Amino acid sequence: PWLAAVFMVEKAVYAIHFVLWQMGPTATLETIVEADPVAASFFGSYGLGDAAFAVFFGYVWIAGLFARASH
Asked: Residue 63 half-sphere exposure, CB side, CA atoms within 13 Å?
């Protein structure tokens, strides 16, 4: 289960970085949409996808811990 925890942390870091990027003064997803909608969908899916996988790997990690404890 600890490998899932490592992946959870990695994906959470990327998702947090995405949120901080959106809140920062540099180019946001809205400005990228105006310039290139395809690139915007690529960047948006990465941020949301990383957050979803962080939740998934967190679930796998917790489930693995409980499975080990029940043995």
From this structure: 7
Find the angle CA(56)-CA(61)-CA(8) to the nearest 5 degrees.
55
Q: How far apart are CA 5 and CA 7, in angstroms?
A: 5
**Is the overall model pTM greater than 0.70, yes or no?**
yes
- Percent of all residues in the chain with a pLDDT value above 70, rounded to a whole number: 99
Q: What is the mean pLDDT of residues 44-60?
A: 94
Strands (E), the chain: none
**Residues 4, 43, 45, 39: is their CA dihedral positive or negative?**
negative
